[in-house]
Write a structure and sequence with these properties.
immunoglobulin domain, 4 domains, transmembrane, Immunoglobulin-like, 6-stranded mixed sheet, signal, 5-stranded mixed sheet, 3 helices, Ig-like domain-containing protein, Ig-like_dom, alpha+beta, 369 residues, single chain
């Protein structure tokens, strides 16, 4: 029935245009592309110059609304229009109510001039459901968990991302997958791996162009610190010992090596000092000996025969000492005045003047201090 009214209106409009001398108007501004959510309204404007007679709105080539200059209109149930005149121009505002996903397509404004038609495109998107599968997240500190966000019945497939305490998370922390659903819709799933240190609020967000703000799903993650058991303390103690003992052993080895090196250096130093001391003492002794040697006097009157002479004298024999004779002299006794009287034996011995032999021995007396 709607088709009958549409074609009837179109035929009447064409007959009116062909018989009217005002044929030849132009479109000043055509409709603009629109992206809307399913279930909402879509609006398009078309502005024409004066002397227009018929304006037709077509969807994917099919007439949906016809408007005649005198205000008569032929429309379908979901297509309506409002007209506004400004000076010599007229603007028709087309409204499509309760748009569906199948309403996506081309919208055309025509004034029956094949060279002056204006086009626009309508894109209808569907925001489906968004939820986090598990709502109870109570975990131990430093425990890694996985949070799964599920988006069902979207068109097109949404862009899913995550936030922690209103701060966007890196996309390296989550993995997102998409799959086609029924009736031209899409499903998506995103898995977040998180290792919280404190309690946080985690938000999953899904966005499409038709949404002015992303759709969200939020969950609270509660973190608690577990009580440390005896095993934990033993493990901690073992770790500490495993780390500290090698360090202490290494330091001890280094200390022993340093002590050995120091002792060795000290011994070498003491040995060198002792050598220097002995060398100095030897040099001092040599200098003293040299001084004593050079300070001694030669005894040219010493004769080993004197010992024998003294021995004979002790026996009461008066020997004739060859010392009383000079070289190349006769063995004549000396005058009595030159004879020395020996009080012990009551004998007189000739005095011995200092006489030096031809080849005397040099005897040096050395006194050591």
């Amino acid at each position: 029935m709607d088709r009958y009214y549409q074609w009837t209106g179109l035929i009447l409009s064409l007959l009116t245009i062909l018989s009217d001398p005002g044929f030849g108007a132009s479109i000043i501004e055509g409709p603009q592309n629109q992206t809307v959510l399913a279930g909402s309204e879509a609006r398009f404007n078309c502005t024409v110059s004066e002397r227009w007679k018929v304006l037709i709105w077509l969807f994917d080539g099919n007439p949906q609304l016809t408007l005649i200059w005198n205000g008569t209109s032929f429309d379908s149930p979901r297509f309506s229009q409002q007209g506004h005149t400004s000076g010599t121009t007229f603007t028709s505002e087309l409204t499509i109510a309760d748009v569906k996903l199948t309403d996506s397509g081309q919208i055309k404004c025509s004034i029956q001039n094949d060279q002056d038609n204006k086009y626009a495109y309508l894109s209808v998107q569907v925001n489906g459901s968004l939820s986090i599968k598990d709502n109870d997240f109570t975990v131990k500190e430093n425990q890694t968990i996985e949070i799964v966000c599920e988006a069902l019945g979207w068109a097109p497939a949404p862009h899913i991302f995550w936030m922690e305490n209103d701060i966007s998370l890196s996309n390296s922390k989550y993995i997102t997958s998409q799959s086609p659903g029924s009736n031209g819709l899409y499903n998506g799933e995103s898995t977040l791996r998180l290792t919280p240190m404190t309690s946080v609020n985690v938000t999953c967000l899904a966005a499409i162009v038709a949404l002015s703000r992303p759709q969200i799903a939020t969950v609270a993650v509660t973190v608690y610190q577990p009580e440390k058991s005896g095993n934990d303390y033993a493990r901690i103690r073992t770790i500490i010992l495993a780390v500290v003992l090698p360090i202490v052993a290494l330091l001890l080895v280094i200390l022993i090596i340093l002590l050995i090196v120091c002792c060795k250096r000290k011994k070498e130093s003491d040995y060198q000092k002792e050598i220097k001391k002995n060398t100095a003492e030897t040099q001092t002794t040599n200098r003293n000996l040299g001084t004593i040697t050079h300070s001694g006097n030669e005894n040219y009157g010493y004769d080993p025969e004197e010992t024998m002479y003294d021995t004979v004298q002790m026996r009461g024999i008066v020997p004739v000492s060859p010392r009383n004779y000079g070289l190349n002299q006769d063995a004549n006794p000396r005058p009595p005045s030159e004879v020395i009287y020996n009080r012990h034996y009551g004998e007189a011995f000739p005095s011995r003047p200092t006489a030096y032999p031809v080849n005397p021995r040099k005897i040096r007396n050395v006194t050591h201090v």
